[in-house]
Design a protein that fits this description.
This protein has about 250 residues and is α/β, with parallel strands linked by helices. Helix content is about 40%, strand content about 25%. One of its GO terms (molecular function) is ABC-type transporter activity.
Length: about 250
């Protein structure tokens, strides 16, 4: 059987500027009346430039770099969320993304219904999701609120539910963005423990983090990204030292 891998070859990814270039009626009128300068046209943002990366089974890859370097974009590209303009993306293995945790939640539906929707989206069958349901409710500590529409949840309750669902179905490739700020201190400790379990089970881990110590502890490979390109690839200690020296 083919092993899990992530392959990106010469990937170019742009954020289109037309969203920001649109002018409102108010801006048009103000420009005509010369009360405001006409808006300058913004260029598309190229977030990944001829980006090539291979990640093999057994690798735990840390992605480090400055704000705006392209780290989150890279993670979302691996997840297949963003369409690439050119190049090749080839991923073998079941992906579990632990970012945008509440993506796909329906606010009018109850917690219990959302467990089913999200569970199916994560690749579970109705039977598997039903089997996991109680464990998810217990982990999220939602009690009777599980049968209330999630519109009535506090932000912490929502994060706990999202985290409990997203981590209930294991995946072969685990994509993580930063530390997950999940609920209060006691929940955070529980969440951290669950994360460690998931990370050790995953066949491939890709972790974006500003916490260099976490990268050093968890990863066996690191890349430093700057302006949409890899500028250093190697052992976490070496890449972190290079990054620190370049600050
Ligand atoms: N939705 C978007 N629309 C337009 N440009 C974007 C969008 N998201 C990111 N960008 C741009 O793409 C580039 C890479 O952003 P990205 O979020 O991948 O960086 P990052 O390394 O994850 O940053 P941070 O450490 O601050 O989270 C930046 O120039 C950013 O301004």
């Amino acid at each position: 059987m083919e092993k899990c891998h992530i392959t990106l070859n010469n990937v170019n990814l742009f954020y289109p500027s037309h969203i920001y270039n649109a002018t409102t009626l108010k801006q048009e009128i103000f420009a005509v009346l010369k009360l405001q300068k006409k808006k300058e046209k913004l260029e598309d943002v190229q977030a990944l430039k001829d980006f090539s990366l291979q990640v093999k089974e057994g690798e735990k890859l840390g992605i480090i770099g400055h704000n705006g370097a392209g780290k989150s974009t890279l993670l979302k590209t691996i997840a297949g969320i963003y369409p690439i303009k050119s190049g090749e993306r080839n991923v073998k293995g079941e992906i579990r993304s632990l970012f945008d945790l509440s993506l796909g939640f329906d606010l009018e539906s109850t917690g219990r219904e959302n467990i089913m929707y999200r569970g199916l989206l994560l690749g579970g069958t109705p039977k598997i999701v039903r089997e996991k349901e109680q464990e998810i409710i217990d982990f999220a500590e939602l009690g009777e609120f599980i049968d209330y529409p999630i519109r009535s949840y506090s932000s912490g309750m929502l994060v706990r539910l999202a985290f409990a669902i997203s981590t209930s179905i294991p995946g072969e490739i685990l994509l993580l963005d930063e530390v997950i700020a999940a609920g209060d201190a006691s929940f955070y400790a529980k969440a951290k423990e669950r994360m460690s379990g998931l990370m050790s089970q995953a066949k491939i881990l890709v972790l974006v983090s500003h916490d260099l110590n976490t990268v050093r502890e968890v990863c066996n490979r690191a890349i430093l990204v700057r302006q949409g390109r890899i500028i250093k690839d190697g052992k976490p200690d070496d890449v972190i030292e290079y990054y620190r020296n370049s600050l």
